[in-house]
């Protein structure tokens, strides 16, 4: 959910030598949190999946992963006038317009929640404990402040200024293509829970697919950096609606 690659890239764009105040869409101070829950004795992955599928807060992204979503509501303390210009907000919106609060991944005998603030961590732990009860154990929380993440990445990542622009663009475009190729076979709320491949099978579904494609295409075009010129033509063609692109 919360990629350090995108965070570092966004921070690199800031001309101020001082790191701004970093907050998510709800106004929480950014803190990278990873919460691990061991599955209880006898608990299966199918059982976890059934419990999560029954809740609207969790949207499946694969057989063993889910997005934790919520309405896009801004909260938290508003920055004062002196600090407003030094605050950088981060949010992740899904194709259906819902705010992505975190990611869930089932790894062997462990359920892992990843979020970007202490407040979301607390809410997510409470929610999963309520839903899954004895099927999971106590949460094991690992946190990393943004400053710590940036320091640890400096040695591992090359200076972006040293990476040719065409290589940076290629990396971003490959990521987008991989993401949307996977999305072709995943349920999309904007398509009434159908996958894009399923939705194009009838006229009503094709119209919704066209609206969905226009939404993600326009949103990407308005972004900064190498994402802005990504060509979604292959996706229109893959779904057989290229003639409806305008």
Verbal overview:
This protein has helices spanning 4-12, 45-53, 118-132, 146-156, 165-183, 196-199, 203-221, 233-238, and strands spanning 21-24, 31-38, 58-62, 65-70, 87-90, 99-107, 110-115, 140-145. By secondary structure, it is an alpha+beta fold. It folds into 2 domains: 4-156, no CATH class; 163-244, no CATH class. It has a 6-stranded antiparallel beta sheet with strand order 3-4-6-7-2-8. It has a two-stranded parallel sheet with strand order 1-5. Strand 6 (99-107) and strand 7 (110-115) form a beta hairpin. The protein is globular, with a radius of gyration of 20 Å. The relative contact order is 0.15. Residues 1-6, 8-17 and 74-85 have low confidence and may be disordered.
Question: What form results from the Cα inertia axes?
Answer: globular
Radius of gyration: 20 Å
Count of helical stretches: 8
What proportion strand? 15-25%
Number of domains: 2
Assign a percent range to the helix content: 25-40%
Number of DSSP E strands: 8
Q: Characterize the main sheet.
A: 6 strands, antiparallel
Major sheet strand order? 3-4-6-7-2-8
Task: Note the run of SSEs as H and E.
Answer: HEEHEEEEEHEHHHHH
Short summary of the structure?
37% of the residues lie in helices and 20% in strands. It has 246 residues and is an alpha+beta fold.
């Amino acid at each position: 959910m919360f990629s350090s690659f995108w965070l570092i890239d966004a921070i690199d764009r800031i001309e101020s030598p001082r790191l701004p105040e970093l907050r998510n869409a709800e106004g929480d101070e950014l803190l990278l949190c990873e919460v691990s829950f061991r599955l209880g004795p006898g608990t299966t992955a199918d059982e976890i999946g059934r419990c999560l599928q029954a809740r609207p807060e969790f949207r499946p992204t694969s057989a063993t992963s889910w997005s934790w979503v919520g309405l896009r509501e801004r909260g938290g303390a508003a920055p004062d006038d002196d600090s407003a210009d030094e605050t950088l907000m981060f949010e992740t919106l899904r194709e259906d317009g819902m705010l992505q609060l975190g990611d869930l991944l089932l790894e062997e005998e462990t359920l892992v929640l990843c979020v970007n603030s202490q407040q979301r961590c607390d809410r997510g732990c409470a929610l999963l404990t309520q839903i899954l009860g004895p099927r999971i154990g106590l949460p094991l929380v690992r946190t990393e402040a943004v400053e710590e993440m940036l320091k640890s990445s400096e040695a591992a990542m090359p200076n972006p200024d040293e990476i040719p622009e065409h290589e940076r663009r290629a990396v971003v475009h490959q990521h987008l293509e991989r993401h949307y190729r996977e999305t072709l076979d995943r349920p999309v709320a904007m398509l009434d829970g159908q996958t894009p491949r399923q939705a194009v099978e009838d006229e009503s579904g094709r119209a919704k697919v066209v609206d969905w494609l226009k939404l993600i295409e326009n949103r990407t075009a308005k972004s900064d950096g190498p994402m802005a010129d990504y060509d979604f033509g292959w996706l229109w063609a893959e779904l057989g609606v290229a003639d409806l692109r305008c």
